[in-house]
Amino acid sequence: MNGKRILDAVGGIDYDLIEDAERPRRGNRPARLAKWGALAACLMVLLGSAVTAAVLRRARSEPKARDMSGDGAGDGAVYTVNLTAACVRTGTEWKLTDEAGYAYLSERVVVLTSALRASGVPVETLSVSPRGYAHIRMGADGNTISENWRDFLLYDGNRLVAIATLYRDETGIFDSLAFGAPWFSDYADLLKAHAGEELIYLYIGDAETILTPENDAYTLAGTPFSGLADGTDYYSFFRNEEVVFIPAIVP
Amino acid sequence: MNDEEIVALFWGRSERAIEETERVYGRYFRSVARGILGDDGDAEETVNDLYLKAWNQIPPERPNCLKAFLGRMLRQLSLNRLERNMAQKRGANRLTAVLDELEECVPAAAEGSLSMADSVALRDAMNRFLRSLPAEPRRVFIRRYWHMKAVSDIAAELSASESKIKSMLMRTRGKLKTYLEQEGFIV
User: Fold this and answer.
1) pLDDT of A45-60, one tens digit each?
2) Which of A152-156, B89-93, B161-165 has the lowest mean pLDDT?
3) CA angle, A75 as apex, A183 and B35 as ends, to 5°?
4) Domain spans of chain B, in order of start
5) In this complex, do B166 and A167 lie within 8 Å of one another by their Cβ atoms?
6) CB distance A17–B138 less than 8 Å?
7) Which CATH class is domain B94-186?
């Protein structure tokens, strides 16, 4: 496993680099927040009930934190369930469409095939799913849809071989492949089981889940994720045309 | 007590060596282990493993910088424990996610001289590469792949968006791959 060798190499770097990276960022964020908090308090006094009401409304809708570690999503972290705020779209200026992403990957099928084979992934004929999916994230800082990030599934016949993540900015499109993981076949089976359905790919914190129209959630290994099984209609909240993806019906 | 004095305690086989190491560095080590493992209990056990290992290795080792010597050892112990704890779920296990990302840095097969199995050469190349980077992408890379921090945590610590951190990491991984190819490393 060559990624492991690189990880080991990182482990041996000079310690002054590590200590440099550990230094906290300059600027005292809590102090800045405290400053603005004091200013807000002054505004409340000056502006009276209207501001007070707005603050109280925000306080009532504070996101609820819930420990989802027992639900198979993660590693003991607490993920914030926040349905009070609509999704904020980020990266709109460099939005990646299905057409642009598909064209980018289609032009590179030969290179991608070579790269996968060189990494030990057997590939005969690589095909790109024409429709990708955006990254939606439910996090402590709100809900976001990253419009300049998009994942596309790469198949060899009916076998899922890689996931291509595309990212776009002012300098162009960048790609990165995920492949070779033991969960790929499980993920492919999950998609086959829901072929033709409009699924949502949702990050809950750093945990990646697939959400069905019935609000059934699964990890990428196909195991049920019960963290969203509280009767809330998460699917309707997050669904829109740009983020759903429809797994191909493959033989 | 400075490092030289603590190392002298190890060499003198005094149990105060562990007490002093804990007093000076215990909080730091726990923080590093917790960052990698994401669990206080596992972190505590790993730090205890570290002290045992330190006792067994000093002597014959006589490190100049105890923090660096034990910090590297701790990282490896934490990664070993993480591997043992590994679940089969992507994203639910930070080690799997990190390894997936670093696979992108593996240079394409080519006629070459240095094998990636040459760990010393690879480590030296990694040092040179990291020192060639601007400060911010270097720090983000190290926080992700030495400290094994989640992208969301790095973003929060640096007051940046997660998208910015992810894109920065992606570009740095691409640059690392190019660098390793230019240095003649092969798979």
Assistant:
1) 444 344 333 433 333 3
2) B89-93
3) 115
4) 3-84, 94-186
5) yes
6) yes
7) mainly alpha
